[in-house]
Amino acid sequence: MIKNTQTLKEKLEGSKKYLLNANLKGSDLEAAELEGAILTGADLSGSNLKKIYLSRAQLVKADMSLSDLTEANLSGADLNKCNLGGANMYKAYCRRGDFRGANLGNTNLMNANLRECSLFKTWMKKANCSGANLQNVKGAQAKMQDINLKGAKMEGADFSGAQLENANLEDAGLQIANLNRSVLRNANLTRTDLRGANLRYVVGLTRAQIQSAVINKKTLLPNYMKVKWNSDTSFDFLDESN
User: Which domain holds residue 153?
Assistant: First the structure.
């Protein structure tokens, strides 16, 4: 373990291109300027990374579990298969970050900005994403069971094939989102905005869930849900299924 000193922070800032597989476990790197750093395979677990600047950094397979990344800047960073399990990413700025195959299980992402991020096959079980911005993310096949997405902004997101069992989507915005073949069993869709969303071939969706959500004529419902539209947003079910 490297000693946590200001000298360490300065040293890393000066040699930021040469941190491959570095052992930085438990380090204090608050507000460090590490734009474009090569931290592939580095161990940053349990570290103080508040307000750290890691824009466009290489963090493939890095271990950042249980670290404090409050208000960190990870915009455009490559976090492919990075371990962020249990980390605190409150208000982190991660726009256009690559989280494919990363572990975000039990991670605090409240009010974080994940807009346009790649979340393909990302593990996000029990993550707290309430109030987060996930607009236009590419989250196909993401594992998001028991995730908290209350009030999250997810317009235009691709969650096709995502596992969203028991997800809390209350007051979330999923306008024109792609949820085709996703699993929504027992998900809370209270006031979830699904106008224009693709719900074709979803698994586990019930009439009660749809009635609690906000949909319109442009919402693509599963084939087993037949409705008669009375207006753009008012409808009646035509059968008794689900």
Answer: 99-242
